[in-house]
């Protein structure tokens, strides 16, 4: 048994959550459930980054207090647990959790040998909260960079260049997929500059954690937020070792736009503080709508735009709760896991979600279970025969190993493909054996065929458990025991048959991003 710490990044709460963050939550949830089923001891933690200047500006734009905006939007992120069927163990809020501020202060002091103060002038992007060289533009945001001149605290990142390169090159810090590993090695090889880790109180509008011993400065939001991985473990009280240095694996899951912070800045900060670095950094790409990164800022409102979904709107791509209300948690989780590739951005449309749900869940998996349970009731009074054939043993035997191998490679599409292959082969087996014909002919083989199919449906319930926990429970409920429950459709179809109900359509339209709105990374977190 291994001890495994799994984390999402923590998002700004300048607006409500979008589907890009749901992707990351679902990915980590699958990993957590998978490792728990293997018998591993797992801690899955997530939360929100409340202490950002971006949050301050969002509150100013709304004309409300920063605390009110942060509390309201953070509650929306916490509310995702139910609709998305998440199994996280801890949710930390950086402005409200009593563990966080003292933990950040302790971490700052632990790195004091690498902290110094100097004047700095540079171009700053509020969207991703970082400085850029004068010849570099922010790759994520269309807004112009702002020139900032002030005295800040700096961290000696340059000191850790060779050690960081060696950790990643050797695989002691494993970065997946390989494209992202190569990207970060090239970044380190080009040289590392010290970076600013504080902001003036005036520029931060007094929001954030003051620098210990220097109340005129506020700790840089990325330093503050990256620290959540330790502060949620009660680092301030020195109680983090069980789940940090004591863990066999410390796995961070994050979007490609924040790779530099997690694979360079964060490990260097940990080394400075005398802590071990993460073992795994698993990176996903972006979700897009009409080829543009999903915009959290668009959730504050704005006109809809045409899509190819049943209602002609794609606002549900941004609002995961609205999407679940319209199509169900199984459809949303399945699309995120089956459609999103290991490398490369993917465009969301409701029509694609429906196609995956109806084609694979309703017509494939759901149809299989319904046929099997119905035939056991029709031909054997609901009693499961004990006889079995070996016809499906090979595909079932391969599936568990294939799922584990794919998840170790951070490939959810391959993992779910291995599960769905069992359902496909089982449906082919039904068509080859024709149980209805065996029943009509009075063939003794019928019992073995039905017994084989029930065993396969039970196996599918187990295989699906990390990916679709709700559907897994429903399948198990229909297929467990010596006498099966009455058949009930598992996955109602969502084929478009006209406009969506007004309640759903209104919920979706209120969240649709304008194709001309400014965008943020599908996942921005860690600070």
Which keywords apply here?
single chain; 527 residues; alpha/beta; Rossmann fold; Isoleucyl-tRNA Synthetase, Domain 1; 2 domains; 6-stranded parallel beta sheet; 4-stranded antiparallel beta sheet; 16 strands; 44% helix; elongated; disordered C terminus
Task: Write a structural description.
It is an enzyme of class 6 (ligase). Residues 4-141, 149-372 form the Methionyl/Leucyl tRNA synthetase domain. The protein has 18 helices and 16 strands. With 527 residues, it is of the alpha/beta class. The protein folds into 2 domains: 3-289, 3-Layer(aba) Sandwich (Rossmann fold); 347-479, Isoleucyl-tRNA Synthetase, Domain 1 (Orthogonal Bundle), CATH 1.10.730.10. The strands form 4 sheets. The chain has a 6-stranded parallel beta sheet with strand order 3-2-1-12-13-7, with helices on both faces. α10 (320-327) packs across α11 (329-339) and α13 (393-408) packs antiparallel against α14 (412-433). The protein is elongated and about 90 Å long. The model is unreliable at 298-317 and 497-527 (pLDDT under 50).
Q: What topology emerges from the helices and strands here?
A:
Layout: E1 3-7, H1 19-37, E2 41-48, H2 53-62, H3 66-78, E3 90-93, H4 100-110, E4 115-125, E5 130-132, E6 146-155, H5 161-169, E7 174-176, H6 178-189, E8 195-196, E9 198-200, E10 210-211, E11 214-219, H7 221-226, H8 228-231, E12 249-255, H9 259-272, E13 280-284, E14 287-289, E15 292-293, H10 320-327, H11 329-339, E16 346-347, H12 350-380, H13 393-408, H14 412-433, H15 435-441, H16 445-464, H17 469-479, H18 502-509
Parallel strand pairs: 1-2, 1-12, 2-3, 7-13, 12-13, 14-16
Antiparallel strand pairs: 4-5, 4-6, 6-8, 9-11, 10-11, 14-15
Helix pairs in contact: 2-3, 5-6, 6-9, 10-11, 11-12, 11-14, 12-14, 12-16, 13-14, 14-16, 16-17
């Amino acid at each position: 048994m291994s001890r495994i710490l799994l984390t999402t990044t923590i998002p700004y709460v300048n607006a409500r959550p979008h589907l890009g963050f749901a992707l990351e939550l679902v990915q980590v949830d699958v990993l957590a459930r998978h490792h728990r089923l293997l018998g591993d001891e797992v801690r899955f933690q997530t939360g929100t980054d409340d202490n950002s200047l971006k949050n301050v500006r969002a509150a100013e734009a709304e004309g409300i207090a920063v605390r009110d905006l942060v509390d309201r939007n953070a509650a929306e992120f916490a509310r995702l647990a139910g609709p998305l069927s998440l199994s996280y163990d801890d949710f930390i809020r950086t402005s409200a959790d009593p563990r966080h501020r003292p933990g950040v202060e302790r971490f700052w002091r632990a790195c004091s040998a690498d902290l110094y103060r100097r004047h700095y002038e540079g171009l700053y992007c509020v969207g991703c909260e970082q400085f850029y060289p004068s010849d570099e533009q922010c790759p994520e945001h269309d807004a112009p960079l702002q020139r900032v001149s002030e005295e800040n605290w700096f961290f000696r990142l340059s000191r850790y260049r060779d050690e960081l390169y060696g950790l990643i090159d050797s695989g002691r810090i494993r970065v997946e997929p390989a494209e992202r590993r190569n990207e970060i090695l090239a970044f380190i090889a080009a040289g590392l500059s010290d970076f600013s880790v504080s902001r003036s109180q005036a520029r931060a509008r007094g929001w954030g954690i003051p620098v210990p011993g220097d109340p005129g400065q506020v700790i840089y939001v990325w330093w503050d937020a990256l620290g959540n991985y330790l502060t949620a473990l009660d680092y301030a009280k020195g109680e983090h070792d069980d789940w940090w240095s004591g863990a066999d694996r410390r796995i961070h899951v994050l979007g490609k736009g924040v790779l530099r912070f997690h694979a360079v800045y964060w490990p260097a900060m940990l080394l400075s503080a005398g802590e071990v670095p993460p073992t795994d950094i698993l990176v996903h790409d972006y979700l897009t709508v009409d080829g543009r990164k999903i915009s959290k800022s668009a959730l504050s409102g704005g006109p809809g735009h045409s899509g190819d979904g049943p209602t002609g709107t794609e606002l549900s791509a941004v609002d995961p709760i609205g999407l679940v209300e319209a199509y169900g948690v199984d459809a949303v989780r399945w699309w995120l896991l089956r459609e999103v590739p290991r490398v490369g951005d993917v465009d969301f449309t409701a029509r694609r979600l429906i196609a995956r749900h109806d084609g694979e869940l309703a017509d494939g998996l759901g149809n299989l279970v319904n046929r099997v349970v119905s035939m056991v009731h029709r031909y054997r009074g609901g009693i499961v025969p004990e006889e079995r054939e070996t016809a499906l043993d090979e595909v079932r035997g391969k599936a568990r190993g294939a799922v584990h191998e794919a998840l170790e490679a951070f490939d959810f599409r391959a993992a779910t493909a291995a599960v769905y292959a069992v359902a496909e082969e089982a449906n082919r087996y039904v068509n080859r054996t024709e149980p209805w014909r065996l029943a009509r002919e009075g063939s003794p083989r019928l019992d073995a065929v039905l017994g084989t199919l029930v065993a396969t449906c039970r196996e599918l319930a187990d295989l699906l458990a990390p990916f679709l926990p709700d559907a897994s429970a429903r399948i198990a409920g229909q297929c467990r025991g010596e006498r099966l429950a009455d058949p009930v459709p598992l996955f109602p179809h969502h084929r478009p048959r006209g406009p969506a109900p007004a309640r759903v359509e209104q919920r979706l339209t209120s969240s649709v991003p304008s194709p001309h709105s400014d965008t943020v990374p599908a996942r921005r977190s860690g600070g």
